[in-house]
Amino acid sequence: MIVDGHAHAFPFLGDASGFPSAEHHVRLLQRHFTTHPQGARRVADNALVTEPTLWDGKTPGYEGLLDVNFRVGRFGRFEWEKDGVGYYIQWLPPHLEGNAASPERMLAQMQYLGVERALLQRGYLYGLIDEWLSEIVKRYPEQFRACLCVDESQLQQESEIRHLYRRVQELGLTALYLDNDRFWSGAQGAELGAAPYVPFWVAVQELGIPVLWDIRFVQRRTQADYLGEVERLHRFAKQFPKIQNVYTHGLPPQGLHTDGRIPDEILALLRESNVTLELLFPLLYGATWEYPYAEARPLIRELYEKLGASKLLWGSDMPNVERSCTYRQTLTYLTRHCDFITAADLDRIVGGNANDLYFR
Asked: Is 0.90 surpassed by the pTM of this model?
């Protein structure tokens, strides 16, 4: 069985999608793209630009955003103008004409590749779409599970605990996606398991759902910042040993040493019995590495040999990853080109681990 631990389905990204207005949603997208590693391009000559065009380059949060008519375009693009010059970022693949992704599209991709099941992940970027995803899970219960989101900056509030219970018990969403960037926005420097948040985590533990952590926002800062977040997550994992945690999106460049080695802090986190790592190299490195991603093999070998197959979980990040490679290539760089992994262990990495975690 092959199970994709990281896939997406979402309605048109230019709509309100549960936010107070479409403008509110689009403003959140603009903030996300201010420092996105995919980079902005000038429409006139398609050149990558290094100067900030979506924000003032110094003021964090929404306060630094510029009024540049940022909007959701077509063909995977997000567009804007600054000082009369047009720019775009190609965040989604060009063939995603309407900047939406239906579950049926994902099912067709899965069938063609031989993927039987998938977890639909999501953060706030995709909208407040819990009900929308719930309907997909109800329609395709054998093929999909889906994540819920909470307001990471308000985990100390009783309202977030009630929201959590409703999404799991009434909507049937069975994994929690957390964006550490949003947690930091309301709890600067706080421990993830600090006293005000303990009731929330007790509820997560009682519900028995895994928590998927997106800590990538610090990949746009220093390695020290990133490893600080790794250690903060490590303390959380030890504080709540009954909560299963997934370290999503794999290992970003900023998290590694300059010689490509994996820091001890990351390996120490992954050795915890309740932590699993997503393998997602084609998405994170697809702009600079070419298939079959030979540069990833030493990292995968080190993870495999030091941690074992039970700690690794394949995910594609479809359809986003198609800006760099095909769906098939997100899988075959592992199944065809990592011959140091035994067949039995490969089955765990590309299916068994995700199946046990998300479809139990």
From this structure: yes
